[in-house]
Each structure stands twice: as C-alpha cells, then as structure tokens.
Fold this protein.
Amino acid sequence: MEKEASQLEKDHVHRVYEKIAPHFRDARYKAWPKVQQFLSDQEPGSLIADIGCGNGKYLHINSQTYKLGCDYCFPLVESARNDGHEVMVCHSLYLPYRNECFDVVLSIAVIHHFSTKERRVRAIKEMARTLRVGGQMMIYVWAMEQKRRKFEKQDVFVPWNPSPPSWTLSNTCSRGIQKSINQKDKRLAMDQHSAKLAGTSKARSSSFVGEKETTHNLFEKSLRWSLFSRSLDSVLDLSNQWHQRELNTFSNCNIQLDELNTGKLFEQIRQGGFMKHISNLSLRCRQNFEDNASEVAVEPGSPMIFHPVPFKSCYSELGQDTKQPPMSPAIIYDCSRVCLPDLLSHQKDVKQQLKIDYHSKQSAFRKLQNRSRTDSSLQDTDNDCSMATRNKQPQRSPNGACLRYYHVFKEGELVELIEHHVPELHVIHSYFDHANWCVIAEKIHVWKI
Amino acid sequence: MKLLTHNMLTSHVRGVRPGGGFPLRIQATEVKVNNVDFNQEFVARMIPKVEWGALLEAAESLGHLSDLPHQLPPEYENNEDFLRKVHHVLLEVEVMEGILKCPDSGREFPITKGIPNMLLSEEEET
C-alpha cells in the first residue's frame, strides 16, 4: 500500500508540479498574509525551514532570519534559487536535517498531497524532529469545508491549467459576451451562467429558467461572479470597500434554485467551459488568484460529479450496471478521465467547449454517479490507496489540464492528527484561513517513562 | 549552498548510525564568495545554533578557515572582529558545484548550481 501511495503521489503531485513549475511565476501565486505575519513576528536570528517551499514565496520574508527552503520539485527549487534563496531538493518524509536544528518550521499547503493518513502523520513527525523544543510549526492544509461550497469527498483530483494571456477587461467582456450571445443555443448560455451563479451558493446547480438577460446584465453578473469567487480564496483584504460593495450586490441577487432534472446534466457539463470563459473576463480576478482560488473555484465541478440523486432517472434510462462498484480507488482514475470543469482555461472559446464530446462525457458522468452512490467514499481508511497503477502518466482532462491529488481536511482533522499521533507537538492555535485549516504547534519535550 | 545551510544538513541513508551522517564532507569543484551585509546581532544569535566543530571543518575544506579559533571566545557577542570572520564563513562562502559525502556510508549527494540534491533512492529510505 505504501508503494501505491507513493506512486499516486508521483503521478498526481510530483509530475504535475514539475510540469506546471514554469507557471508558478504568475502573480496569482501570492503569499498568505497570516503566514507572512507569522514569519515577520519571528525573532531576529531565527532559523526557519520551509518544507515544501515551492518557488520560495515565503523565503524573502523577514530578512533578520535565516530561511532554508526545500521541495521535491527541481524546477520550483531552481526558480527559488534564482531569486537568491537557500534551497535544496529532498523528500519531506526524509528531511536531510539534523534533529532539533530549526526554530521555526513551515508546512504551507503540502501535507494535503500525501495520500494516506499514515504518510501525513509521518510528514508532520519528520518536521517535528527537526524543530527545537520550544520552536513553532505552522501548517496549512486545504479545507474540505469551503465558505460557500463543500467537497463531497476528501480525496479529490483538481485540474490545473496555465493562466490565459492577459486581456483588458472591457475588451474581453464584450467579446466574451458577444461570443456567448452568438451561440446557436443562446438560451443555454444564459441558463448556464445563471446556473453557475446559483452553483456557487450551493453544491447543486440549477437553471434560472425563464429569465431573459440583457448583454449588460450578463456582463454585470459575470463580473460579480468573478469577484465573488475571488473573494473566497483571495489574499486580498476583504474589508476593501470596493470589493465589499460588489460582494453585497451579489448576495442581494435573487437566485431561484430549481429541482434538477435530466436536462441539467448537459448544462452542467458545459458550465465548466462557460465558467472558464467568464473567469477569463476578469483581469483582476486572474491577477489576484491564489493557487487555492483557481482550484477551489473549480470545485463546483466535483460536487456536480458526485451528486447522486437527480441523475438516478437518467441512470436507469441508460440501463447502467447498478452492481457494487470495484474498489474505490478506481473512482480516482475514472474521475481523471472525465473532463472536470476548471476555472482558468487555454484559449479555447466557449463554442468549442460546448462541442466537446458530449455523449461520452455524459455516460462517464452517469457511471460516476452510480459508483459514488454505492461505494464507500474515499474516506481516510488505509485502503484508500490500494490502487492499481494501471496508468503511470499523469491523468489529463481532455483540454490538457493536469490533475493534482489532494486530501482535503475536515474541520478538526488536522488538530486531531497532531493530538493523537504526534505527542511531541502541542497545538497552540488552530484556525480557518480562507480555504485552509491552519495549525500553529509548539515542539515539546516528550518524557518517556 | 552556504556553510550555514551545510551545518544543518545530514545524511539519512538507511543503516547510518544515529548522528553518523553528520557532518557531510564537502568536495567542492566551484566555490563562490559573495558580499553579504554584516548584521552583528544576527551572527551573534546564529553562533549557538551551529555545530561549531562542523563549521570549522567545512570552512577548512574550502580553504576559508582563515584564523577562526577552535574554541568560541568568551563574550563573542561583542567581539566584532570575531563576528565578522564568522559572518564571512557562514554567509559569504557558497558552494556552487560539488559533492556532499556521508561520513558513515560514503553516499554522495551532488550540489548543482548551488542546490544540494538530498533525495534518497527507494532502497536508501529508512
């Protein structure tokens, strides 16, 4: 099982990061303010290790301290090196550091990439080993509970696409809207858009049947949605007035949620592509997107995929096999064959998206529906990574995105992990920061009797 | 790789005795010397955190030992002369290309473009 876990991480974490490393220079990969603050608060002369430092976005903070970054991904480490940082390549389960040499250890958005609970615990213990008694560790992991949506599973694949080229806001908006309006199925485009707005407040998507949108309204709504989604995960200060006003306006939109029916399946599949397009329209949205933001906003895709009940009728229509599915890991590979909607796209236009292989996707979606209903979910059991490595290549969605594996954490899970399995760490602070569960823990002496 | 970094590094190859992987022996093929701003307080605070013997050994292997003492002088916090020498060795000397060798197992870890590669193979992982 260890081998499979390791292989999953190779395929869906390491290889993906290697591939997307050049794009980490984008402005969207900014530092979390609370992490910055934590670092700034450290004493002069502190020795700080950033485990899983990526391209080193935290390594420049607080020049009174000495920071060592390390990461498994060569290209990212090289990138950090080019910025003048002290970095190395290593695996976070085998840190090349002597015991208790650091005053501070950071683990920001790293351990959620480990595919078993045992490996996550090992990672924390390994970091704790390098921390001196009295020293502090800060850990950030993706939360399952997002502010306005929920993952339905803890083990997910999230697609990643390079960001689109920068367009000016006004040009792209009108161009983008014009494109959608020119679609043969104009009504569908508008329904999709409204449905997407609805989808951001609940896991269900729906259509806004019966409402006619003017071009202006559509633009306004899409802009709001872009801002809305950005607010979920952005490092921007949410007290910013302009931002706040937009949020308020959005929340005042009345959106009716309809019952799902068969027809919505088609819309949902295509929503992803449409949403991608909408998100391109907001230049600021893109510039300020955090790593999390671009992917968390994807998640309307996941709940959509795993949403069981409404598709029951379609399901039986197709005469699908309703037997118990094979082991749950198989779902992961099925997931990855399905085109998960992702927020930032290549330059494919909406029309092209809509035409993508509708039929095969539809049946794939329906298969997934059945499996997710009847199988035991990918909860944190020791079985969840006994997967066949039938496909060693990183899974790709049809439009070329790489899929990254995440184990998203439930509320309290990270704290429980530490309290029950890492006696040498004492949790002193735990909180929710944007889309993350966060812990600050202190290394303590463990007395063995 | 600066010598302050090197001072934290150890080998964890399977089978190495506890503590047997430190300090890594440096075989440098390219060394760079930079100018780094001297911060007296920073250096003074760093000294208790380093393994002094390992630092001396590393500095010597690179030909930068100069006249650093084998023992820490008393009240070094106010000894600017001494601290400047330590500053030089900790922060200004960089190994750009070379090898870090585990004293116990002999395993070699390469340094390329200033970046040590400390990855273990599967067989070496404990």
Remarks:
- Strands of chain B lie at 25-33, 93-101, 108-112, 115-116.
- Chain B has a mean pLDDT of 93.
